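Lecture 7, part B: from sequences to assemblies.

Below are the input chains for today's worked example.
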Amino acid sequence: MEVGLNNTQKFLSKIATNDGHGENLPYFDGWKAYDTNPYHPQTNPSGVIQMGLAENQLCFDLIQEWIMNHPEASICTPQGGFDFKETALFQDYHGLPQFRAAIANFMSRVRGSRVKFDSDRIVMSGGATGAHETVAFCLANPGEAFLVPTPYYPGFDRDLKWRTGVQLIPVVCESSNNFKVTLEALEEAYDKAKESNIKVKGLLITNPSNPLGTFFDKDTLKTLVSFINEKNIHLVCDEIYAGTVTDDNEFVSIAEILQEFPTICDHNLVHIVYSLSKDMGFPGFRVGIIYSYNDTVVNIARKMSSFGLVSTQTQHLVASMLSQNDFVDNFIHESRTRLAHRHDLFTRELAQVGIGSLESNAGLFFWMDLRRFLKEPTFEAEMTFWRIIINEIKLNVSPGSSFHCNEPGWFRVCFANMDDTTVMVAIERIKSFVHETRMLEIKTKAMAKTKKQCWQNNLQLKLSSRRLEDIMSPHSPLNSPMLRAQN
Amino acid sequence: MLSTKVTDCNAHGQDSSYFLGWEEYEKNPYDSIDNPNGIVQMGLAENQLSFDTLQSWLDNNPDATAFKKNGQSVFKELALFQDYHGLPSFKNALANFMSEIRGNNVTFDPSNLVLTAGATSANETLMFCVANPGDTFLVPTPYYPGFDRDLKWRTGAEIIPIHCSSSNSFRITKSALEDAYQQAQKQDYKVKGILVTNPSNPLGTSLSVDELQLLVNFISTKNIHLISDEVYSATVFSSPNFVSVSEVLKNKNLVNSEVSKRVHVICSLSKDLGLPGFRIGAIYSENKDVISAATKMSSFGLISSQTQYLLSEMLSDRKFTKTYLSENRRRLKHRQETLVKGLQKARIRCLKGNAGLFCWVDMRHLLSSKTFLGEMELWKKIVYDVRLNISPGSSCHCSEPGWFRVCFANMSEKTLMFAMQRVKSFVDAMSKKRNQPRHEQIRISHARRTKSLPKWVFSISCNPLEVGEIR
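Predicted structure of the full complex, as structure tokens:
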């Protein structure tokens, strides 16, 4: 991409001047709309409500209470006997042993203690973002590929590809079977890669899925494991939403598959990516984890973790908090309960107005079916309708095309990053819109031409000449000092 | 099945003696009470001298570690804050701190800072921004062994050394720069820039104004980048005062010029404040494109918001920073003098240093042969017989055998003086042996050789410097 670079840019690398960071895609409208007009119940009640941010804000009261009652977890308080100097000096990339033990303990409890994790296989990383990039560096060379079921988290395009040179090949999943991953789709994607002379190194799944909010059933997981074993490729399981499963009895972690069916595959092919960003609601603390069953990968990923270690100040806090089983068990239970309640509220209310979503029981969002609101079943129509949602209904949601969904009309709507009052406001707005649309449809027959012009006027947006931060980037900035970005 | 980054032996550089010495220390660490015969760690460039100052600040400011601001909890806001532009209050405080360290001779704009998880991440990120795979950076020798990993491993970039010699105190010369540049061209490497460490690790000296001007002129002519790793900026304890490349640009009226857009500074609080565990690093650049790209890349290694908050409170306390900087320098100066005097008693000299957490020690006269093989033999003796872990010059890519980096700020003064006594005893014993009858020397040497050597002493298979090679 030498053409079009200015003089200064020519001094930079190709990576620095290409679009691999993914932030130049045309999804900035939602952020700009929210940015310039954020909803506030008192000061800006007609502002845009942020529903594009997959954050878990439902249980901060529990954590805050714990922090208050445990001042020793924040280093160098008079109450603790903890040695500030030791913590501040410790830069061993193995991480504090108590931190690893606490993470292994938490990961186990999130999975109902059905499986144990070996703390010596816990490797730190700069959030799940850093974890994915590190795993890609370990498993694949530039030009090699990972298969990824669609729809998938847009950040993967940056995390797995940008600096590594690795490619992503979509495994197309369809609404006709609730977006389940089929063996046929896997084989098709694999064969397509082979035909293009692209070497497939692994399969990446997110379980529970972002953006679907569903998790894989045991049989599907077994099918996937058999597939990768037969092809002798890696399986990377992003289980970052494991703790958001509302019905714990059904969720199956890949760790459980390996435990129950130890000979199902070569364990050296299996790796888990995890983080505290979603389950605990701590994206700011950058606690990413790689858990690999492959000793070499553990070894090398650990060396690479030097590029994104977890601050020992944070390691200490996390070690203190997550080693307390009473707190952990209560937190997990309470978080699930509140998420389930929030999820049910939304889906119930929206069902009343005929808006459906993919049946789900995990994640911080649901996958809303708005296909019938599109003028035609195209991605252009999806974008057009998305702008209506932002500018008319005043909700920032994420269009399915940003997740590489192959069918237009699906939107991801987050529900765990706001309080109860805002939830009701958002629901009311959607209901009003649906009602108005129905009234509109009736009148449209008589006044079709005029109405169309009105809609078109409303669609003109001023494009920002500022940075084009899109909804995919978890760390995109917003104006206020302590605002957060999506995912 | 795995990538070549995994299977390529030693590309991460961790089988070099620099890291392996640490492993020996881990097996047998000195403790004045529990293990007085253990190995004293003198290979760790840590600043442990001023923790009491930090501790006292923390005791007086409990809110900073308790997630509170003016008594109110800010836990939720911090836990959710993952904006890669960083906490504005922290960046402001860091920019001011950087300026203060440089005697307020130059100011830093917080919007030109990119926060990263340590200087390790900063260096790698900057390389990803300015170098394509195969592109080359020139680096003066001796240099910090970690650069082989940080600059090259995952980026695919190359390093060509700029050879510096003891004959002029390892200063960077125009001819050495030109030689390195020509060397790269001969091998068809595209030179993208120069990376210097100022103050230098392992030399313990700060670059002179002449050297800095030479570098700026050179990169200006060649149209390449200059990265100045200034992670030891606050450890300059005696004259000459520290001069940052930023100051040189300012004095040459080059701020906002085309050249200044190719000059980038690396900072960290690991050495200056002694907080390596907290992973606080930053890139400073006037180049908006570099800032933009590096900021996006910092997603792979952000600083924990918990830590950003603590440091924003600490560094905003100007009274504290002023006291800390001067007291820290005073203690470092005293400690360095203790080491230098201790070595002098053993008739060992050091390069005259004014900065850093270590001395660059001249042990050429103690080599049995003036080769790198001789250097490794001496190092082995120092690790096993003297029981000190120090870093051999070859691990820092020094062109001349016989130099060692010895750290002085990661232990108590008592331990340092104890280590010096061991050195003196060792040197005295060596002198005595040299004056012994020949047959007696042979007998002792034979008895020693039967002790088995760990394989790693000679197994630096992928290290560019083969054991025994003379440069």
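Note for the exam: Chain B is about 40% helix and 15% strand. Keep this in mind when comparing with the next example.
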